[in-house]
Amino acid sequence: MDLAEFALVNQQYKFTPPDEDKIDVGALVDQYEIDIDFSINTQDNIRFQVYVAIGVNKNGALPGYAISSEGVGFFDFSKAADISKKEKGEFLQFSGISICINQMRGIIATLTSNGPFGKYLLPSIDVNDLLSEKLKAISKGGAKSPKASKTSPKK
Q1: Fewest CB atoms less than 10 Å from the CB: which of 41, 58, 65, 101?
Q2: Which SUPFAM superfamilies match (predicted)?
Q3: Number of domains, the chain
Q4: What residues contact residue 41 under an 8 Å CB cut-off, 6+ apart?
Q5: What are 93-127's pLDDT values in tens digits?
Q6: For residue 110, is it within any domain?
Q7: CATH no. for residue 6?
Q8: How far apart are CA 78 and CA 1, in angstroms?
């Protein structure tokens, strides 16, 4: 599986200054709610798309950054023609989603690097939990994006 291309398709960024003069930025950004949604689409049996949408403090409930980003990774299986469709799906669910989240992590870090609070690094995300939450949402008939589980606290 090769990442042939990654495209940013939507980006929204807003900074709301805090009311207080002195603020613990690290403690504040640790409280940001992170929403991640994704979908996997196929163009044919060789090329697949993984769409990822990430919202960080998206509704602006807390001061500082409010970020909404959407991107699409284009994956190519032409060098792995002997892999079954089921195996391709499993690769995309775990590796493809992780790769796209990491691409978005870099984009968000670059976007915020000159912001008032400095670079925001999206924390590590537990993709297994994300998949589990997505399956629960689908089984309940909801389209709501799952809340991301952070695997390590923000430093």
Answers
A1: 41
A2: SecB-like (SSF54611)
A3: 1
A4: 48, 49, 51
A5: 889 999 999 999 999 999 999 999 999 999 999 98
A6: yes
A7: 3.10.420.10
A8: 8
43, part of any domain: yes
**Structure token pair of residue 109:** 């870090």
Phi-psi region of 125 (alpha: psi -120 to 50; beta: other; left: phi over 0): beta
CA distance 31 to 113: 19
> Residue 120 falls within a domain, yes or no?
yes
pLDDT tens track for 32-88: 999 999 999 887 777 889 999 999 999 999 999 999 999 999 998 877 768 887 888
DSSP letter assigned to residue 77: -
Residue 103 falls inside a structural domain:
yes
pTM above 0.90, yes or no: no
3-state DSSP assignment of residue 69: strand
Structural domain including 101 reads 2-139
